[in-house]
Amino acid sequence: FPNLAPGGYIVEFQPGGFSFSPQNQGGDDTLDSDADTATGRTGVITLAAGANDQTVDAGLVDSNAFNIDSFVWLDTNGDGIQDAGEPGAGGVVVRLLRDGPTPVVVGTSVTDPTGRVMFLNLAPGDYFLEFVQPGGYAFSPVDQGGDDALDSDADATTGRTPVTSLVEGNDSTLDAGLTGPALATLGGSVWDDSNGNGVQDAGEPVRDGVTVRIYTPGGFLVATTTTSGGGLYSVANLVAGDYIVEFVPPSGTGLSPQGQGGDPALDSDPNPATGRATVTLTGGQVTDAVDAGLITSAPAPTAPPGPAPAIAIFDPALSKIGVLEAGALGLPGERVTWLFTITNVGSAAGTNIVLTDTLRPELRIDSADIDRGTVTVSGQTVTFSLPSLNPGESVAARVRTTVLSRPDGNTIVNEGVLTGTGSGGETVRRTAAAQISVPGALPATGYAPTPDNATPAALVGGAAVILALAGLIALRRRRAR
Hints:
single chain, mainly beta, 5-stranded mixed β-sheet, 5% helix
């Protein structure tokens, strides 16, 4: 902050999403953190004429450091307990929801072949998991055996776990047992198709080191492996169901023609344009016949050259900020604009996109608009609607408000919820929140705001007028000299 008059000052840091480092550590004022861990404020800094203080610093600690580590296993004896030798189940879709009056999906992932799934870097709050029940399987009995680290927590009907509060640490106890068909193994080989006929002829060499990826039909990556030991790959412990196998041809090679020769055990299975093949696994099946042939010179492409297209997914990113008018503090009578940005970072268009923003009673809605689409206002709720959002497209929406009263806790909080429909008919949900801190005491007077919230605004305005007049008087005196 340059050009300050001599006097006493306090610096206040406002770190959204972070907490402060311990204050005044280490004995070197040029390297320590000066912000009070509770208020974010420094002590009084006295500046003499011409002083230049470069030691007023703040260290920040990431507050979004909580994780949920979950396990899904095949409960072969159906007792609801993770017994020794029972395998983890891969390929199970798991959703993470933030708890509240209307729970919101904040993440979706899938278990790996060991049965593990993790949700990382979560903000403090209340969460629960929802396990998507695979076809042909049922959930184990819940809360068996007396050890929460070894039981099953998924409700038999909804697949949902109890709520966990991430306040002081991580949670690794929200697990799910499955009963039903044995797990399957998906495998095959990659070979050099020397004559390019799409058939594994005798004497054609195998190829190690080729990357193979396994996806769910929804596009979630289950496993990545490479061929070895004679061009072979194998991924075990998958729940029965549909999968997509993607082969990544090494540089300088392409994929053989698909489905040649009439023998599924000897042909090349992936589409040469995408590198992908779809396979359905039944319970206990062990397949080693999802294969790919490589040719050194690819045939005439059936799709534009370039990387294999990604699985089409609608993936909206939602961000939100609160912007005060110039010079405002968030006090009654002042204006706040809440700015949303919706960006489709996925590879497929989304449809039926609805963004809902329900504002707290401390705020009055003045107006709302969106770059494209429609807006409706009902009471304290603003609803933005978009018929579609293409990949890479970004749309901004704004809600202009006036502060009516000082909020509890001196913080104005506003959260928006976005829903849309993906290319496969799935419902996608995202949330974004923003907050503005309102001072508990006025910087001009030090007096706490009064209950009716009228005096503070008048005091701030009066202080601004007094300061302006003082500056004008000083300017006139300089001119008179």
